Batch of 2 targets.
Target 1
Amino acid sequence: MTAVLQATGLGKRYRRTWALRDCSVAVPEGRVVALVGPNGAGKTTLLHLATGLLAPSAGEIRVFGAPPANQPEVLARIGFLAQDKPLYHNFTVGEMLRFGARLNPGWDRAVADHWRARFDLPPDRRVGHLSGGQRTQLAVALALAKRPRLLLLDEPMAELDPLVRHDLTRLLMEAVAAGGLTVVFSSHVLAELATVCDYLVLLAVGRVQLAGDTDELLAGHKLLVGPRRDPPTAGPHQIVAASHTERQTTLLVRTSGPVHDPTWAVHDVGLEQLVLAYMRNPQAIAGPRPTLTAVPYDTKEVSA
Amino acid sequence: MSWVAWRQQRPSTVAAAILLAVAGSILVASGWQVTAVARDSGLAACVAAGGDCQVLVEAFTNRYGAMLESVSALGALLPVALGLLVGGPLLAREFEQGTHRLAWTQSVTRGRWLAARLAMAAGVLVAVAGVAAVLLTWWWGRFDQLHISTRAALEEGGLVPVASALLAFSIALAAGAVTRRVVPALATGLVVVLVVALGLNLAAQSLVAPRPLPMTSLAATPSPRASLDDQLLASGYRDRSGRDLSAHALDRRCPGTGGQAVGRCLAANGIQRVDRDQAASRAWQRALAQSALYLVVAALFVALAWWRTLRPD
């Protein structure tokens, strides 16, 4: 499996505070990745590092096998939607798309026109006169028409109405299924992404708390319900979260094999439940499991 | 990229053109007025004939001196304003609105993006400031003809407006790259431009110090002045024995504010008006030195802005 985006010991420091620290993560090709974490967890910092807008303070990040900063070959393959959806407010919609066409050799006019029409954006309307949702739609159209192979979307859904959200996710699913596209969404609301993502990266305060294939993550975590045990113990399994009632203890554990203890009733966990449990307990860090071996991307392909 | 650079340059180009149109019409109107007044009062004919035009000059400066000062201040600030207007928002607005994240994540490197934007902005600015320079040269020429100004068309016109526009542009550009906000960039830009320009003017003056021609008495007819293109450095009064008279001493000998009576008194006491000039070529050299210094410092500020912008955060 090929890692489209690979961070190794990546860190970013703003003056004295680390926005991202010792972050090692490999995003495999052809996945829809949910980048989740509370506000200030470092999601935006990680995406900015991936686009070369920021330079790492420690470690390194490689996108398509090369550090992304000032690499036109890498930049041409990345579609990036920044969190505040920046656009030139004195441009018209048509001029904004022309901007995309002029700055991107791989620009696909049909894609741009399709999405402009689908979003019903009048070409002569000034960007400054569009609503927040329309601006997001235009920014999405710009990112898609670039025909990127890695789409990095920072909080893309926030201002879209449910219908457009649905359309957009369906389109992205189709594009990913057709091959050649990897999507990284960031959000602090997992519900937006739970139905579409098949890979999860959870950031706590500047660190990777959990990363992996969603199915594997779900299989590797169980909810144990049994008689009250305080302090909680779960044998070889790592406790992520624990809650107690007067008689009963509920544990969310990261299993290291089957649960043999018969006093526990073992239940499956849902993705949202899992993420919330980790978010409530930022100290719990799921160390890397050998589920994914990152193969260095073929750098020859990039320089070609 | 060139379409993008032009499209992004358009708003500040329009603003600069409007500013130029307003300031230009003030310059042209006042220049015409000066010419008309000099013609109607007989000053122009007197100067052309090389006679002693002191009374006429005084009457003129009494009436138009204040206007001359304010319009000359406008003329000096116009290129600076143009430069600030074009340079200040170029980077600062991108940072302020976050659009640098859009521009720098297209398929073009920051270096190419910045080079294209700088080339377009500098081209627009040179064109606009060039028009301003033509207007200012023409305007100062009105006064040079009458030999009543202490500054020459060469110093406030010619190359200098273009160079000072580029200096202001580069400083506002760098201020925008550092402050990342439009208003602070313009405010700090303005202060820094004025300080830097003052320093460079002093440097140019010490590099090419005025070398005065011998004092010439204007009572002699025809005027011994070598050429009307020479630049007037100072004028004053001398008594019969050749001593310079202060304004106070002059007023004691011949009280009054001009006119026939004072003129007769001066003539009776043998007091002459004398001018100190420098050769036109000297003023040229100074204007060239000043422009060259402006351009060198402008290049340094562009380099600062370039380095600050290309360095990833």
Note: Residues 54-97 of chain B form the longest helix (44 residues).
Target 2
Amino acid sequence: MNVTLIDYGAGNVTSVERALARLGVRSQRSRSPECIGRAEALLLPGVGHYAALIRALDERALRAPLLDALQRGIPFLGVCLGLQALYETSEEAPELRGLHLLPGAVRSLPATAKLPHMGWNQLQLTRPSRLLEGVSAEAYFYFAHSFAATNVNSEAVALCNHGADFAAVIEKQNIFAVQFHPEKSGEPGAQLLQNFLRLAA
Amino acid sequence: MSLAHRIIPCLDTDGARVVKGVNFVGLRDAGDPVALATRYNTEGADELVVLDIAASRDRRPTFLETIRRVAAELAIPLTAGGGIRTLDDARSVIRAGADKVTVNTAAVARPALISELSREFGAQAVVLAIDAKRVDDHWDVMVRGGRDSANRDALVWAQQGVELGAGEILLTSVDRDGTQLGFDTPLTSAVSRAVSVPVIASGGAKLPEHFAQIFSEGAADAALAASIFHDNVQSIRELKQYLSARNIEVRLPC
């Protein structure tokens, strides 16, 4: 299987590419609507500002082929901003429209905790997860973000807490997303990516 | 369930080779940053910092190649720094595979650099490195490798840096660096309480107690050390077991 990494220009594409390479998986970067339309599996990495991701999707005309691919059941994994992009909007750039595959807005984590939420944290499983199969319940994952999906909905299979509960792992049919960085989360991260690849195959 | 305290080994390089901490044990090529990075990755390091302490223009391509080679092996976050003066410098380091960049002297000289980096890469990728030295009743910011005073209050600078967009502070005590007397608890605690972002304490670590103290009394979010890890004075695995036994939340390696 070949994974298409959506390279919108500001993401952590290289890290994800290397993590996949360590698992022996071929991936290709793409920023063309045609390639995204033909992808067997899609991965949307992302760090930085929400606006940079959403603007790039629209400026490069990637929104429509991406939504179309998801509709056709193409397996998708969103990482960090790639999870946040699935919601309607984000407080980080309220004027922009998200992909709206999930309801609600992404919000800032409460300032009662140190922000960014940066470092290794554990998850709280809310229902059985396909992505976390074989991953210890005690496992730590690497997070680096200030905004999060705090309006936790039924698609969240695992939560994390930093000042507030937020969605850490999303699974909705062929749509998967994680708020942490599996490509930077050591063994558990590699296992999660491996699980996604298996589900996508 | 809460955020784990991070243990961060730091590799000081001349661009290509690790230059500080000379008595490396158990490595075929002791000064090879990739060999050390791989070892720390396995031992349970939470992150790795690689600094170019020479930071000369002509050695830059070598340093970028080092970052590329280290990043290819690493499944944990990588921070790179030393000599980052412009947005382009930072961009090339991040393209080479670093997740975060540290800025120090150049940011003191031109604070807008912090905002430029933060806008481009996000606050989570911008680490403001502050070298602080006690002077009378406060701490002065030191620049150029801790040699010259910038005549600026470290607490005020840390707060300004965060306002400008730094997502983390790497705080080195010039007084404690190299002494192995323990981290500077009053300094770290003061900065950590003054800012809203995570603080990495650095300088002076030797014993496990030093780490326990900086996390509890010093309110540090992470602790960085170099030679004690390189020289096998302290193993990361045992350090984490020590901390965990004292109810300090850490990510234990498998």
Note: The domain at 2-200 of chain A is CATH 3.40.50.880 (Rossmann fold).
